[in-house]
# Entry
Amino acid sequence: LTSARALTIEAMLPGVAAMAMAFERSLEEGRALELRVVDSDQADIRASLSGDGAAYAHLVKRYESDIARQMWRFTRNEEELERLVQDVFVEAYLSLRSFKGHSPFVHWLRRIATRVGYRHWKQRDKERTALEQQMDIDVDLLASPEEQSPSEAAEYLFRLLERLPTEDRLVLTLMYFDDCDTREIAERTGWSRSLVKVRAHRARKKLKVQLEKAGYGRGDHE
Amino acid sequence: MSNPMNYVDRLAVRARQERIPSVDTAGQVLLRIQQHQPRAVRPLAFVAAGSLALAAGIAVFIVPLIQSITDPLAAVFQVGAGMLP
# Structure
């Protein structure tokens, strides 16, 4: 039996080796692509700083879908989304000289995007009435996530997080929607990692209380 | 009673699969940048020019005043100097 197993393993070895080589090759290709993007980013940034609008348009086109994905977490309105994405790139252009290039350009853009989104929420909070803020969660909407379309699930998660204070909402939005860990949240918000951990813990607690108050767990939501 | 946070975690997994609306912002971004720059500079230029004019006007009145305070007899000596042979 042992020798039969050894024979099987031996027969599998060339296949495993080929898979490992293919994986390594794809990693190398990925790294090469990343380097090419970083190089073209730097060339476009240099050109933009010397007044080349077309170069900045290249940067916008390269990253606008990435930034739109992030800004869609801050609004569910397409017109607002367009304006927020524009705000991010205008703000990035105006502070382009401060970009040192220590980290990829897209990371720097994401930090600006987080700031723009946070400001947008603060503005919206002022406009929202107290009544709107106190509205209860609709228990009927607590259907099983697997039964909802991704868009419905996103809409519902957005509405759930909307009830939290802005700082708590930001931490949980980055955590749930963008799947960020505490290190990445700290990087995007500029807060310390320990502060992010504390805020995440408190925010989750508040969210849990809200869901329980709305009757989650009393019915069948599984 | 099931844990509500488990529900939120599952909701988030589903929400991350959502398709995001596409945007095309490059043109508008460039337009806004172009509009932004002169607008930012122009008010500053007006403020600077106004401040300069005001400072010059004040200086015209203040300099003789300071001279008369620091040296009140200067005018007398100037008249006296003119009368000397």
